[in-house]
Amino acid sequence: MPSSTTHVSIRRITGESASDAEDQLAVEEPLEIVVVARPRGALPMASRERAPRRLGITMRTPGNDRELAIGLLFAEGIISRAADVVAVDEAAGPSGDLVRVTLAEDVVVDLGRTERALAVANASCGVCGKASIDVASCAPPSPLARGAPRIAPRVVHGLAARLREAQPVFGRTGGLHAAALFDAGGALADLREDVGRHNAVDKLIGAALLAGRLPDPGAVLMVSGRAGFELVQKALRASIPVMVAVGAPSSLAAELASAHGMTLVGFARDGRFNVYAGRERIAVAPEAAS
Question: How many CB atoms are closer than 10 A to CB 71?
Answer without folding.
Answer: 30
